[in-house]
Amino acid sequence: MKNVNWLGLVVALVAGQAIGILWYGNLFSAAWMEAQRLTEADFVGQDWKMALGVLNMIVILLGLDWLIRRLGADGYVAGAKTALSACVAFALTVAALNYIYAAGTLSLLVIDGGYQVVTYAIAGALLGGLKRKPKAD
Questions:
Q1: CB–CB of 126/8 below 8 Å?
Q2: Distances (CA, A) of 15 to 3, 18, 33, 135
Q3: Helices (H), the chain
Q4: Are 84 and 120 in contact (CB under 8 A)?
């Protein structure tokens, strides 16, 4: 944990939450709720799930940070490419399982998958490129 890019991780966490609010709150709220067959009433008393979402994002970011460091993907572009590769290989394939086996709709896969692609790319760029400068002697 001592090698974790904490600056990049915290900024990526804030960015990921902001993207989620914009994505699911403003851009695709109605389409996502329709695809999930949910109403506003289904969200009453569910605020605690936001904390679980933040925890989930931290785990993802720790994994991406480890992968980016392990592969030596220094820089914004290299970090984004590495994270996008991980997104396609893992996040999108897991999201696709809901479409394949759990009667999810194609629109739900596109909305959730699009969020993953955007979030992973931005998080990877931040983790790869945003570094604390070493202290001068």
A1: yes
A2: 21, 5, 23, 26
A3: 6-20, 29-36, 48-71, 76-86, 92-101, 106-129
A4: yes
pLDDT tens-digit readout, 53-106: 999 999 999 999 999 999 999 999 999 999 999 999 999 999 898 888 987 888
Q: Which residue from 17, 114, 113 is spatially nearest to 61, judged by alpha carbons?
A: 17
Whole-model pTM: value is 0.90
List b or e across 65-104, with b for residues whose CB sees 16 or more CB atoms inside 10 angstroms.
bebbbeeebeebebbbbbbbebbeeebbeebeeebeeeeb
Q: How far is CA 52 from each of CA 47, 49, 55, 130, 136, rounded to the nearest angstrom?
A: 10, 5, 5, 25, 39
